[in-house]
Amino acid sequence: MAVPSPPLARQIRRYGENVRDFFHASERDTLISPLFNVSLRLVLGSYCYFEHLPSLLREVLAAASPEQIAERMKEVAVRPNYVHLNAMMLGYFNGREQLRLRQGLAADEVLPQESRADDELLVDFWHRVGSLYVEAESYVPSEIDYRLPILSGEQIAELAGELVAEAPERRRAVRRMSSITELYTFINNGEARVGVFHHGPYPLGDGDILIVKELVGLRDDFLPWELAERPHVDAVARVMRLRGVDVKIDLFGSMVAKPFEYADQIVSEVLLGREGQTLRRLSEQDIAEIERVAGNAQVSMYEQAASWTPEYQIAYGADLYAALALTFARCAGLNLDEQVREAFHRTAAERVPALQSGEDPPLILERLGANEGQLYSTALPLGDREA
């Protein structure tokens, strides 16, 4: 059943407060990388979302309702997940605010090219999907003590039944493979952590909790890497029973644990791999093969990125942001890859020169790092700009 959306301005303010909380807590308002122009890439991707995301979302919603999409997301190691849902909101409203800042609009002035219908479409989608996706009274982690429970009681019980106390050698192999594969997702996504997703904690009794850490998009070939091999699974999920650990999960599925090094607090675990519709326990051979392929691939990707031009270090943002949004199209059974790639590349061709020259500085980053004032303006058009 559809969940009615709160007023638009209230939702924009709410989301902005939580984004600022996320950036301050993780110190992500300073975006520096030796290989990627992360700050200007963010601005480019945000422009792409503001210009093209509403039309993409309308095509998705013609094929599947928000409620159907939320149900399909409520599985282990699938995409889209909560990271993708919030990345859409983040990119769109960052693009909107960047344009407002560039045009020097006052707090009560409306962005001329803004469509209220587009704003409402995106925020309503975030609300309706989030309300059914997250198994709690709120779908925003900061409002529920930094929890992100997405699995039903039945799913939790099924996972808990799979857990075993692994032998030390197997535990070391799992940790090594997980670390190497996480680094693979990091460079695959241009030193962004969108390939890592935590959810939980799920109480198991006696103070123990269940945490699921997913590494996703391992075989996605939309991004421009030329690789001899990719892992033979789409995603890996490490399901862990923890004891004596305090866990917080934020707006983008990142986890902070106390103690920080919690490996010794793992009572039991299971490592699962997803291949299409199949989720299965990974064998020792699987673990060794994923580690080998991910390790070789990350070296190749670093070598390729080192040869990118300054222009492409920014332009890469078009593909990165498109890949995130396209997970919703695929969830709805649509193949819009080339259509979206073409649209985002068109925006890149228009926007990258001014970004690279400094004519279009990343003003949104200063706003993200500020301590006062609203992150996103709530000055809204009365109706659609075409009306």
SSE topology sketch:
Elements: H1 8-26, H2 38-63, H3 66-73, H4 82-102, H5 116-133, H6 153-162, H7 168-188, E1 196-205, E2 208-215, E3 235-242, E4 246-249, E5 255-258, E6 266-275, E7 278-281, H8 284-306, H9 310-331, H10 337-357, H11 363-369
Antiparallel strand pairs: 1-2, 2-3, 3-6, 4-5, 6-7
Helix pairs in contact: 2-4, 2-5, 2-9, 2-10, 3-5, 4-5, 4-9, 7-8, 9-10
Mean pLDDT: 94
Query: How would you sum up the global shape?
Result: globular
| H/E element sequence | HHHHHHHEEEEEEEHHHH
What structural class do helix, strand and pairing data support? Answer: alpha+beta
What is the count of β-strands?
7
- As a whole number of angstroms, the C-alpha radius of gyration is 21 Å
Separation of termini? 30 Å
Q: What oligomeric state best describes the polypeptide chains here?
A: single chain
Strand content: 5-15%
SS field, number of helical segments: 11
What level of helicity do the residues show? 40-55%
Main sheet: strand order: 1-2-3-6-7
Poorly predicted runs are none
Question: The biggest beta sheet, please?
Answer: 5 strands, antiparallel
Q: What is the count of distinct domains?
A: 2
